[in-house]
Amino acid sequence: MLLQIPDVLTAQQVEQARRLLDAAEWVDGRITAGPQSARAKDNLQLPEESPAAREVGQMILAALQRCPLFITAALPLQVFPPLFNLYQGGQSFGTHVDNAIRQVPGTPHRIRTDLSATLFLSGQDEYDGGELMVEDTYGVHGVKLPPGHLVLYPSTSLHHVRPVTRGVRICSFFWIQSMVRDDGERTLLFDLDAAIQRIDRDLPGHPSAVQLTGIYHNLVRRWAEM
Questions:
Q1: Beta-carbon neighbour count of residue 215 at 10 Å?
Q2: Is the pLDDT at 16 greater than 80, yes or no?
Q3: Where are the beta strands (DSSP E) in 81-121?
Q4: Radius of gyration in angstroms for the set of CA atoms belonging to the chain, rounded to a whole number
Q5: Is it the case that residue 83 has pLDDT exceeding 90?
Q6: CB 165: neighbour CB atoms within 10 A?
Q7: Average model confidence (pLDDT) for the chain?
């Protein structure tokens, strides 16, 4: 499932994030790439220990906890601390798939990357190109969103970032280990939850909503890994 989630950050939060990121020191983006991805990756990135990365990362994590659509779609068990990249002057990232396991910096913990997320922080008129291209069974989908909006997609997907031919593209990116590993099962749960919410909105108090809610939670019990 490829899902766009609007307004994860408010306009004021985006403005605050950009002030911090624009003043930060950026380095070669290959520092977090595996051997194969490093050959395809041409961008800049904030070091993980950067004060700006930590402050804006905490802002993003707090915003995700307040975002019902993200919680419903991702069913997150763990979220990797957000990272930040910058593309300019023709930089791009060739086709690749994200690493299956990521070590959480400064800890002994690792997460399985079930879902990948990109949160856009540059205005769409600030740069040309830079679309995130995600491949699935239905083809290749280009994503270029307003600042504060997020796209969520399975980490098993091949994807790439097209060259930025004008301006600067700044985004946050991170991974999620879901309580439900399988993308098909997560999609079924997401669709079921959406149907329950529609019934509850259109037919308040209808007994079908209670029955379907029970089915939803029993499926979560069957599929969830903690």
A1: 11
A2: yes
A3: 83-88, 92-96, 101-103, 110-112, 115-120
A4: 18
A5: yes
A6: 15
A7: 95
pLDDT over 70 at 34, yes or no: no
Neighbour tally for 91: CB within 10 Å: 21
The pLDDT > 90 percentage for the chain reads 91
- Degrees, nearest 5: CA angle 177-180-183: 90
| CA proximity to 165, closest of 117, 113, 130 | 130
CA distance 24 to 169: 15
How far CA 189 is from CA of 41, 67, 98, 179, in Å, comes to 34, 17, 24, 12
How many C-beta neighbours within 10 Å does residue 217 have? 12
> What own/partner pairs with CB < 8 Å and gap ≥ 24 does 12-15 have?
13/59, 13/63, 13/148, 14/121, 14/147, 14/148
Cβ contact 33:74 at 8 Å: no
Going from the C-alpha of 212 to that of each of 74, 116, 162, 188, 218, the distances in angstroms are: 20, 29, 42, 13, 10
pTM (two decimals): 0.93
What type of residue is 8? V
Phi, psi of 211 (to 5 degrees): -65, -45
CB half-sphere exposure, 84, CA atoms < 13 A: 27
